[in-house]
Every structure is written in structure tokens, then in C-alpha cells.
Amino acid sequence: MSNILGISCGFHDAGVTVIDEFGNIKFASHSERFSKSKHDANLCPAILDEAQEHGDIQTVAYYENHWLKKWRQLRAGQKVDRSLTLRSVLKNQLTPNLLNKKLVSYGHHLSHAATGFQTSTFRDATVVVIDAIGELDTISIWTAEYDLLGYANYTLRWRKGYPNSIGLFYSAMTKRVGLRPLDEEYILMGMSAYGKPKYVNDILDKYIDKLSSQTFKENMHMGVPDDFLGADADHYDIANSSQEVVEGLIYSVMDYARHNYPSKNLVYCGGVALNCLANRNLGNYFENIWIMPNPGDAGSSLGTAALAYGKQINWNDAFLGYDIPGEYPVRDILDELQVNKIVGVASGRAEFGPRAFGNRSLLADPRGSEIKDKVNDIKRRQHFRPFAPVILEEFVDEYFTMPKGFEKSPYMQAVAYCKKPNEFPAIIHKDGTSRVQTVPKDGSGIRQLLEEWLTLTGCPLLLNTSLNIRGEPMVNDINDANRFEKEYGVKVCT
Length: 494
Ligand SMILES: [Fe+2]
Hints:
- A 6-stranded mixed beta sheet has the order 21-17-22-16-14-23.
- The protein has helices spanning 32-35, 45-51, 66-75, 86-89, 96-99, 108-117, 166-176, 185-191, 200-207, 235-260, 276-279, 300-309, 330-340, 371-379, 396-399, 445-457, 478-488, and strands at residues 3-8, 15-19, 25-30, 57-62, 102-105, 124-130, 137-146, 152-161, 208-210, 215-216, 265-269, 288-290, 319-324, 342-346, 348-351, 360-364, 388-392, 400-401, 415-418, 433-435, 437-439, 461-466, 492-493.
- The protein contains 17 helices and 23 strands.
- By secondary structure, the protein is α/β, with parallel strands linked by helices.
- Bound molecules: fe (ii) ion (FE2).
- Fe (ii) ion binds next to helix 6.
- The site of fe (ii) ion has 7 residues, from helix 6.
């Protein structure tokens, strides 16, 4: 067995992926889940050990071109280390045995593109990548297709370079409202529902040269002044205005991509693809949409491994991480839900990506008005942040108006309007939307649970949020699950 190890590391949220010689994903996870250090930028020994449990590694693939990145850092006046070869760049990330394997690297945006295209079912696609920054690129549009031998071919059609950056703009505004940039952008997105777009013109006047060409007047890497828009400016209004501006920028890219390249299939990757509020309108531009569940840099460990493999990857679901073996504890979860309304579950393989889909989840009965406060007490997070519903796929149209292109949404990639907001206030945001997870008839543990829950209560949905101790990464192993149970007094079924 000769496996490929894909790695992304050195910036934020290091990740690894192992692909075998048949294109099966043997393992994919984030370093933070093993080191317990949130957003760990470096590969820890424990995740590298786990990656090698799945067979010998023949090739190690790195997710970006270190030369180009150094050149950009030098140009920006940043301190650059003197490592010249890929081996020397990776010497603090890999163990000596892995450093001696064949080492290859691919461009940052190409790795993003492959993460999306080679996990999709499409034979051809227009691939849009939008992130904060790769080596030099911040937006890229590719056309992708498989050749007669099944190898993926990518052609770069259009690019936007640093310092023009949609991702850096959103991070700068995240910092402006007192949140952590490159981490808490999703909170800024959640805040936007409570504000008004009163600063849109101010933002456009000051920073955006031309919305339709995503050209900025200033380098957003430097952030914005702390008193930009006035020291007393309402943070919710700033959030709403920033979201409106970022949506205008994203849709201008999508409009260009749809009208200049033939495919009706969109593959969308890069950290900005996690903006599920903006994603609700992507169906206005493309007929078929694929956003894999880990489109940011950690997910690029999969993309770079896919490029080394060359062909389509066998993608089934996001349950690719550390395994807690055993039957999914359906009966225990149901018992706990009926008595205490809230229960944790840590069973099977952990999710690859920032969201929990049922294997490392805190689940709750979504009915009634009290449950949101109860779950918020445990999560101790801001009152404005809603929880997500997980629902049997065949019931979704009865409960939600799904946006075009996201009629099925197994990875919570777009928001939808709830048709019964009064029945389920805990999973409805201020603007009436929910970040819906639909569960197909795939025999998964969460599927079995929802089916039993429906039989028991007549309700086909549950509240689903990630299982983590505040400030820590998502629960990974049994020890983490036990610590959660002890810390919060909520049973975690394993
Ligand atoms: Fe990226």
C-alpha cells in the first residue's frame, strides 16, 4: 500500500489528509484536534502518527508554492526565513522519516480548486476560489475537467492578486468590531442580521475602488483604523454593512465566472466559501453547486493530495477523522433527549472541517422557547448566535424554503428560511434564516437517530451544534468527551 499524505500548515489551522492508491480518503483531520491547541498552525506529532496508521506514506504533498509565498512576503516588507528548499521549509513540521519521502508541492489556489473539483461529482466545472490570500492570488477562476484517462485538468482563466482581497477585507472588518480576524468572521456574519446597511457607502467610498472588478483603494492586510466609521458606530450596523459589501464583491465574481465560461457547474472553495449567508444566492448564477465541507486552508491538505493522486477522489462524507469505535448510541441519545432535552454524542469518525454533522455534536430537542438559552448556557456564547437544525432530507421542504442550488444541504453551506419559526425559535436567526443540515438515506448514525426521533415524537429535526469545551477545538477522543461531560454536566454518549 502506498499512500499520499497531503499537508497544509504554517499559517493557521494545519490539516492532513491521507489518500490511498485507489483514491480513497483514509484519514483527514486538523492538527488542533490532536494538540488541543485551537487553530494550531503546525502539524503535531500525534496527528502525523495517526496519519501513518493507515499504511506507508510514499509521497508528501504540500499545499502551496513556498517560493512564491516568500517573494510576496519580501515584497510586503515581512521577515522571511532563509529556508530555500521544500525539505528545509518543512523540517519543523514533519518527522525525519516523512522528510525522506518524495516531497511535492502545488500552488495555494490550485490546491483549493482541487479540494473542490476532485471531491465533486462533476465531470466539468467552473471553479471559483476566494480567500484572504494564497501566495499572491486572492481570487482565481479555473475551468476544470477530466481527460480520457480520468486525470483532472485545470486551466487558470482569471485571477486577482494581493493586496486586493475580499477575505482580507472581511477579516479587517471582523477586527474593527473587536473580534479575532482569521477566526471569528462567522460571528461578524451572524451579527449582520441585527444591523442595518447604513455604512455601505462609507465603506465603498473609503476602500473599494471598483466593486465590479474587486479592486481596493488600500491594502486591507493592514486592517482599518479602530475608529473607522466613528468610535461610536454600532457594531451590528458595521457587520450588516460589511456583509452587504462582501456579497456585492462575491456576486460580481460569480457573475463574471458564469458569463465567461461555459459550465453550469460551480465548484466554490477558499475560506470565503464558508460565508453561508452569501452562499444563499449562488443559485442565481449557477445551476449546480458544490462546496465541500472544508473549503478553507485546512481542507487544502485534501486538495494537494488529490493533485498528487491526479484523478477523482472517492468522496462519501465528511466523517474522515479520528475514530471512536462502536455502534452509534441511538438508544442512549434518545433516552437522554427525552429526559434532559440536551445530549452530547462522540461516536465514529470525527468530522473533517469546522462544522459538526452528528459524530461530535451537542444535540437538543429544538421544540419550544427555552432550549436556546439552555444550550447557550452550556456553550456560553453570544446571545445573537443561532443554532443549526439537522433534518431528515425528505422533510426539508415541509420545514424550510431551501435556496436554489442548495435543495439538499448536507454540509450546512447556505442559509434557508424556516416555514415554522414559532415552533422552533432555537434554530431561527433574527432574520428568519437557519443554517440547515439535511441528512440523506445513507445509513449514518445521525440518520438512524433522526428516524427514531421522528417515530418517537413526530418531529424530523434536532438542534445540532459542535461538541467542544469553550475555547477548545472540537472533541476528538474519549478523553475529550469525558472532560466535556465533567465540565458541563451534560451526558456525552459514546
Ligand atoms: Fe487559502
